[in-house]
Each structure stands twice: as structure tokens, then as C-alpha cells.
Design a protein that fits this description.
Elements lengths: L1 H17 L18 H10 L4 E5 L4 H10 L4 E4 L2 E4 L5 E4 L13 E5 L5 H15 L5 E5 L19
Parallel strand pairs: 1-2, 1-5, 5-6
Antiparallel strand pairs: 3-4
Helix pairs in contact: 1-4
């Protein structure tokens, strides 16, 4: 199980390293004497990125609250976090059907690592999102269960 999680983390990190952000100032393409008023308005609008929200199990209510507060900036895509009869993941990420609305967009993943099963499922979704040519992935993790030293008796154990 540790090997699978480690492999998922390495794949996620390698996908992260392959994404590079290059910022170009569009004003630099226009001569100084040209009227850029329309361009300035366009730049001000684009500074507020629209985020597509994917929520982990149990985080759907928070996603709906975020969209309710600012529907012009956030769009929620319901995700089906199902399982096959043998217990493996059967996840249908929202925003890809009938057309792909995620590619090239900013994505906000509301994650919850409350147990190892859902953690691995969410790593799988993160990898899928990163391989889908998204502009950026922001992960919000309100709770992360950390181990404490009093639970570790031997040096080789992780708790």
C-alpha cells in the first residue's frame, strides 16, 4: 500500500514539474502611442480567474457555499466518487462530459484526507486533472491527519 501511495506522490510531483507558467505582459505587444483602454479593461477582467471546483466526498457542501458566495468566479462540477464491487475506484470527475470544460482552466480541489482510502482516491483525481492540461490546480486541504510521536514505539513505524 505504501508503494502505491509513494508511486502516486512521485507521479503527481513529476506532473507538477512538467507544468511551467510563463507570464507575458500583453501590453508589451502594443506600441506606447496606441490606445490600450480596451486592453486594460480586458486585463482587469482576466485578473479574476474563474475556478472550476471539484470536491472530495464530504466537501460538496463547502463547494456549494463557495459558489453561492461568488457565482461569477466559481463553478462547481459534481463528481461521482463510486466504487466497483471489488472495492477499486470508479470515479467520474465532473466537468468532462458531455464536453471538456476543465482543460485550460484553473481548478480548485477541495480535498479531505480523513482516511487512507479517500486519500489515494483523491491523489488519483489530482493526477488525472494534471494530465488533462489544466491551467492550474489549487488544493485546499482543511484537515490533514498527522501522526504524533507518542503513538510511535519503534523507529521503523509510521503512525
Amino acid at each position: 500500500m505504501i508503494d502505491i501511495i509513494l508511486t502516486a506522490v512521485i507521479m503527481l510531483y513529476s506532473c507538477y514539474l512538467s507544468i511551467q507558467t510563463i507570464e507575458i505582459d500583453p501590453k508589451s505587444f502594443y506600441p506606447a502611442n496606441k490606445n490600450t483602454e480596451g486592453l486594460n479593461v480586458l486585463l482587469e477582467r482576466s485578473n479574476k480567474n474563474k475556478y472550476h471546483i471539484i470536491a472530495a466526498p464530504g466537501m460538496e457542501e463547502l463547494a456549494l457555499k463557495i459558489v453561492g458566495e461568488n457565482p461569477d468566479r466559481f463553478l462547481y462540477h459534481a463528481t461521482n466518487w463510486g466504487k466497483f464491487p471489488d472495492g477499486t475506484d470508479n470515479i467520474e470527475i465532473g466537468g468532462f462530459q458531455p464536453i471538456n470544460r476543465i482543460s485550460g482552466q484553473h481548478v480548485l480541489l477541495l480535498a479531505s484526507f480523513h482516511n487512507n482510502d479517500v486519500t489515494l482516491s483523491q491523489f488519483s483525481v489530482m493526477i488525472t486533472l494534471l494530465q488533462s492540461f489544466i491551467e492550474s490546480l489549487t488544493v485546499v486541504l482543511p484537515f490533514y491527519p498527522v501522526g504524533t510521536m507518542e503513538r510511535v514505539i519503534r523507529l521503523i513505524r509510521s503512525a
